[in-house]
Design brief:
heterodimer; A: 116 residues; mainly beta; four-stranded antiparallel beta sheet; 11 strands; 0% helix; globular; B: 114 residues; six-stranded mixed beta sheet; 51% strand
Chain lengths: 116, 114
Amino acid sequence: GAGVSQSPSNKVTEKGKDVELRCDPISGHTALYWYRQRLGQGLEFLIYFQGNSAPDKSGLPSDRFSAERTGESVSTLTIQRTQQEDSAVYLCASSRTGGGSNQPQHFGDGTRLSIL
Amino acid sequence: AQSVTQPDIHITVSEGASLELRCNYSYGATPYLFWYVQSPGQGLQLLLKYFSGDTLVQGIKGFEAEFKRSQSSFNLRKPSVHWSDAAEYFCAVSPTSGTYKYIFGTGTRLKVLA
């Protein structure tokens, strides 16, 4: 597609429920990134995919968080047993390549997640 | 430790005035440098990037930034601010080899007075 697409744009759910956030990267972009942005703060790295593999999951805050990518395209970030501190905007980005290349990351508009 | 500092959390300028947003980084070697802008409810849009060469880089929307190696700085400037420039601005760095992670500053929120 023309840009990075994320869905849903907004998600409100009750504490303890599971949520799935979706990211469609720019076609042909092999690298995909997930970030979390808490209110009034900068971006916190969560996970990076190169193709369908995730060489770095070090930013995932707990084992309640997981992510997968299929077909070197769509990625899903899953949060199980949501907690109120999970409330944030989750941003996805993609780039043509990863690994320190000079290809900039292109961001989606994010999913605003609110845990009641 | 690698870090990016944006010392100004909020900046307010009058429309038509000049703007400078500061960014300092701490890194083992000169990284790739980026400025992004985020309007409310939207993702980040790339304004400009520095990889190598000319230390003054031009970006979109009339923005420019100057890389100063001696000061480890990459400040963003605009000669005349427009009301539509009100947004949050993020500086980011990325290594030139090895890993791929961006390190973001905490952002500067720009308010423009009519």
